[in-house]
Amino acid sequence: MARLTLDALRTILVACAGEDDSADLSGDILDTTFEDLGYDSLALMESAARIEREFGITLDDDDVNEALTPRLLLDLVNGSEAQAA
Amino acid sequence: MSTPSHTPDRDRPVVVTGLGVAAPGGIGTERFWKALLTGENAIGELSRFDASRYPSRLAGQIDDFEASDHLPGRLLPQTDVSTRYALAAADWALADAGVGPEAGFEDYDLGVVTSTAQGGFDFTHREFHKLWNQGPEYVSVYESFAWFYAVNTGQISIRNSMRGPSAALVGEQAGGLDAIGHARRTIRRGTRLVLSGGVDSALDPWGYASQLAGGLVSTVADPERAYLPFDADASGHVPGEGGAVLIVEDADSARERGAERIYGEIAGYAATFDPAPGSGRPPALGRAAELALAQAGLTPGDIDVVFADGAGVPELDRAEAEALGRLFGPYGVPVTAPKALTGRLCAGGGPADLAAALLALRDQVIPATGRTARVPDAYRLDLVTGQPREAALSTALVLARGRHGFNSAVVLTTHRP
Predict the structure, then answer these.
(1) Complex ipTM, two decimals?
(2) Residue A19: which of B74, B141, B142 has the nearest Cβ?
(3) In this structure, are residues B56 and B217 in contact, taking their beta carbons and an 8 Å threshold?
(4) CB B9 within 8 Å of CB B226
(5) Which residues of A touch B77 (CB under 8 A)?
(6) How many CB atoms within 10 Å of residue B276?
(7) Euclidean distance between CA atoms B193 and B250, whole angstroms
(8) Burial B99-138 (b: 16+ CB within 10 A, else e)
């Protein structure tokens, strides 16, 4: 199964929680916090639910809450994916 | 709980300094007002879904609202259509009142009190569709609040950093006036400014069906004949969507900050409940009007115009006409119900009527009651029909009834410093 990429994560974030005019998603955002990108905990919950459905994995809510940046969330998802395979 | 930002004062004059309207026939206050004065009928065939097999197919729809033109993208996935209207109307009202970051308010100076009767029907309809067809894992986390009666108050509060006393009231059509009454009470308890009003929308299949189930929706197919308050041919009402937001302020505080305009004063407010069916006691709408007048220190002879509830259901129209007749005498005051052009807006209807009444005071003209033409003589009403009527206006009484027995009344006056 394909790994979740940063581009795919961008798409999911915008689809689930919209795009903030004041935050730019197009640059190198790997280590920018979701809060700085304008996404709150509900936006992450919504995005995580979609990732779970699309990738057939289960993510722990506490783990998602602790993934403060796209890099950490990608590591979490792609690590979980390895376990699901 | 915040401490009052001003000293509580039960007699403090409370004024309206900003209006924002999202209603069928007009996005924005002036477009709404022009549509009422020109008699533009916004009632038409429902276009949101296929209603061809429904007993009624008409609604007052807002057709020219593109949410992305008015709201940031991050708010779109989490909001029902009714909340989007409320947020946009709130922005317009605040701008109209000149309330922004530079106005000098602290967050706790600003409260929010709104009414909704229907909650987020459209949003919920979509999420329930996912629930039944795909499973619970597909239901949006935002459903947890998008449906909720307090969501408009909450979203407006968050977006505008308004952290003073806030509330949400539910009283069907009367709820919108109750919100304004509570905003006035909140100002008198010491909050400098309260954003208040009501907005509703339930024009998805589920929301529309629930309104039909109430039995008061007209089944007449002709948009020109379906909603005729106080007409001999009245057959029920047509559902509409939208409403209005009013910026309500302490009059002294408004002057201190240099408010550009004061539309009028909220001089009196009262609410009553009807007695239980079968009790033999009369409906209490007239009592609400009397109490609001008394609170304003006015007599019926002081009132220049009444914006009626105008249910469009014969027995309800008769009851309202009788209440007005007892209070004002036969043909004693001009009466109008311009909501006949927009449909009945539920919690948005009272605030939209307040906006119309304040604009009537400003422009000294009473908008007409849509397509109503033949008022039974027995009603003894001086109903404004056909064309707007120019009049010397300094006071208005606005009435609203909510199904199951809510009655609310607000008295507006021109503000004299």
Answers:
(1) 0.85
(2) B74
(3) yes
(4) no
(5) 15-18, 46
(6) 9
(7) 7
(8) beeeeebeebbbbbbbbbbbbbbbbbbbbeeeeeeeeeee
Query: Scanning the structure block, which residue is given the tokens 């400098």?
Result: B192
User: Does pLDDT of A23 surpass 90?
Assistant: no
Residues 6+ apart with CB under 8 A from A67: A44, A73, A75, A76
Round to whole Å and give the CA distance between B245 and B17: 11
Q: Which of the four pLDDT bands, split at 50, 70 and 90, describes residue B3?
A: low
Q: How far apart are CA A59 and CA A49, in angstroms?
A: 8
Between CA B8 and CA B186 the distance in angstroms is 9
State how far the Cα of B94 lies from the Cα of B108, in Å rounded to an integer: 16
Beta bridge partners of residue A8, listed in sequence order: none
Encoded tokens for B246: 């009013």
Which candidate, B174, B23, B197, B159, places its Cα nearest to that of B79? B159
Tokens representing residue B4 in the block: 């009052």
User: What are the CB-based long-range contacts (under 8 Å, 24+) for A32-40?
Assistant: A32/A69, A32/A70, A33/A68, A33/A69, A34/A68, A34/A69, A34/A70, A34/A73, A35/A68, A37/A13, A38/B74, A39/A13
pLDDT, tens digit, 9 for 90 and up, residues B371-390: 999 999 999 999 999 999 99
pLDDT at B236 over 60: yes
pLDDT at B158: 95
Q: Which burial class, exposed, middle or buried, applies to B210 when counting CB atoms under 10 A from its CB (0-12, 13-18, 19+)? A: middle
Q: How far apart are CA A82 and CA A84, in angstroms?
A: 5
Let me know: does A58 contact A76? Beta carbons within 8 Å: no
- Cα B246 from Cα B60, distance rounded (Å): 21
Instruction: Name the minimum distance, in Å, from the CA of A39 to any CA of chain B.
Output: 8
Pairing of the two strands B334-336 and B264-273: unpaired
Q: Which residues contact residue B238 at a Cβ distance below 8 angstroms, ignoring those fewer than 6 apart?
A: B43, B56, B58, B59, B60, B217, B218, B223, B226, B227, B312, B343, B344
**B15 is written with which tokens?**
């004024």
Contacts B141 to A, Cβ<8 Å: 42, 45-46, 49
Which of A13, A34, A46 to mutate to probe the B interface, most B CBs <10 Å?
A46
Say which residues have a Cβ less than 8 Å from residue B16's Cβ, sequence separation at least 6: B246, B247, B248, B249, B262, B263, B264, B265, B266, B354, B358, B412
**In terms of CA atoms, which chain A residue is nearest residue B137?**
A49
C-alpha B76, offset from chain centre = 24
Residue B36: Cβ-neighbour burial (10 angstroms; 0-12, 13-18, 19+): buried
Closest CA relative to residue B246, chosen from B203, B183, B308: B183
